Amino acid sequence: MKTLLHKAETRGDANHGWLHSRHTFSFANYYDPQRMNFGVLRVLNDDKVSGGMGFGTHPHQNMEIISIPLSGDLEHKDSMGNTTVIKEGDIQVMSAGTGVQHSEYNKNKDEEVRFLQIWVIPNTQNVEPRYDQITLDRADRKNKLQQVLSPNKEDAGVWIYQDAWFNMVDLDAEKEVVYDFNLKTNGLYIFVLEGSIEAGGQALERRDGLGVFDTDAITLKATADASVLLMEVPLQL
């Protein structure tokens, strides 16, 4: 097993006043040639947006874009005709394909919205743009893995054009869970949302990230109550 540790404090830090974003990988004005991606996982942004503020209409192309709200309400509008609100417990996916434009705004004036924006490089180019969102039952991840994304339309969660699987888990202190890779050639990026865990011989705290590869399974043990996002992705671009 090989690991790649990214401590929370080493992430890029962009504070625009209305937007405070922490970048696990190079993005916008944050550039580190050693932190460009983890395989096809290209962007992992941890965003806070002030009340009533947001991202105006802007384009995307040939990228799988996943949004996971952590608190608050995020309003989405796009050129496909979708006008929706996503909130904690939801997961949103957009296949940009041949091109799409969208905007994202904090729906509330009096509280911030916090969400993860994740970009995955697709394995199929120039598809017809598509949008989907679902609401997850958090009880289904209590001390067990809850699949929230996969390559398969028939599986639990949303799907994308890539051999990637995302899972979430809420672990009570001292509880363990074993993650078995779907593809042995894939890597797994572990991102601690809250609490602390041990994985791959590493102690991980809130917002730490750990890339794991050259193995077919890994055990996660909570050292305090923890919430974790696991992203299994191909390592070859």
From TrEMBL:
<dbReference type="InterPro" id="IPR012093">
    <property type="entry name" value="Pirin"/>
</dbReference>
<dbReference type="InterPro" id="IPR041602">
    <property type="entry name" value="Quercetinase_C"/>
</dbReference>
<keyword id="KW-0479">Metal-binding</keyword>
<dbReference type="GO" id="GO:0046872">
    <property type="term" value="F:metal ion binding"/>
</dbReference>
<feature type="binding site">
    <location>
        <position position="104"/>
    </location>
    <ligand>
        <name>Fe cation</name>
    </ligand>
</feature>
<feature type="domain" description="Pirin N-terminal">
    <location>
        <begin position="13"/>
        <end position="120"/>
    </location>
</feature>
<feature type="domain" description="Quercetin 2,3-dioxygenase C-terminal cupin">
    <location>
        <begin position="148"/>
        <end position="233"/>
    </location>
</feature>
<feature type="binding site">
    <location>
        <position position="102"/>
    </location>
    <ligand>
        <name>Fe cation</name>
    </ligand>
</feature>
<protein>
    <submittedName>
        <fullName>Possible Pirin family protein</fullName>
    </submittedName>
</protein>
<dbReference type="Pfam" id="PF02678">
    <property type="entry name" value="Pirin"/>
</dbReference>
<comment type="similarity">
    <text>Belongs to the pirin family.</text>
</comment>
<dbReference type="InterPro" id="IPR011051">
    <property type="entry name" value="RmlC_Cupin_sf"/>
</dbReference>
<dbReference type="InterPro" id="IPR014710">
    <property type="entry name" value="RmlC-like_jellyroll"/>
</dbReference>
<feature type="binding site">
    <location>
        <position position="60"/>
    </location>
    <ligand>
        <name>Fe cation</name>
    </ligand>
</feature>
<keyword id="KW-0408">Iron</keyword>
<dbReference type="Pfam" id="PF17954">
    <property type="entry name" value="Pirin_C_2"/>
</dbReference>
<dbReference type="InterPro" id="IPR003829">
    <property type="entry name" value="Pirin_N_dom"/>
</dbReference>
<feature type="binding site">
    <location>
        <position position="58"/>
    </location>
    <ligand>
        <name>Fe cation</name>
    </ligand>
</feature>
